[in-house]
Amino acid sequence: MLRQMRHDVWATQTLLERCRSLTKEQLQLTAPGTYGTIQKTLAHIVRANEGYLNTYGVIPQPFMELTASVDEIASRLARVRDAVEQLFKSKDLDFDRRLHDERRKADLDLWVPLAQFSHHGSDHRSQIGTILTVNGLDAPELDVWAYATAEGAYKDF
């Protein structure tokens, strides 16, 4: 699960770096069937990550606003990255334990927000990739193979 979440943060960071080269107008591009603009979707991914990690007490509220700049999104993503590492340093955390979550008004097993963290990010990064490509812009490779290559865990021979 830790490696999965590291991949997720890496993929969001890689996409964010790609989007830093876009103009303000390009950051406002969208496409049918997606969450919204590139900027709003990036903010939504990171804001949701803050919420998932808040479940474990490693990120406090308030969460980032959806109107955040690319620089603020990057800053908050760094906070998310640190919180992921902090979360997995705890040897006492039982991810199969049930939690009463007042913020969500639900009871849930502790593994659920972690699984949603990765699924949610992947879904919305794909939407941004669609927005980029339908507008004639390049989208980075964000799959696990690209991550493994970047981490030195995979190399062609």
* Radius of gyration (Å): 16 Å
Number of β-strand runs = 2
Q: What summary fits the major beta sheet? A: 2 strands, antiparallel
In percent, how helical is the residue content?
A: 55-70%
Spell out the helices and strands N to C. HHHHEEHH
- The assigned structural class equals mainly alpha
N→C terminal distance: 28 Å
Low-confidence stretches: none
Strand order of the largest sheet: 1-2
General form: globular
Tell me, rounded to a whole number, the average pLDDT.
95
Helix count equals: 6
Name the beta content range: 5-15%
Structural summary, described in words:
With 157 residues, this protein is mainly α. Helix content is 58%, strand content 5%. It has 6 helices and 2 strands, in the order H-H-H-H-E-E-H-H. The chain is globular, with a radius of gyration of 16 Å. The protein starts with a helix and ends in a 7-residue tail after the last helix.
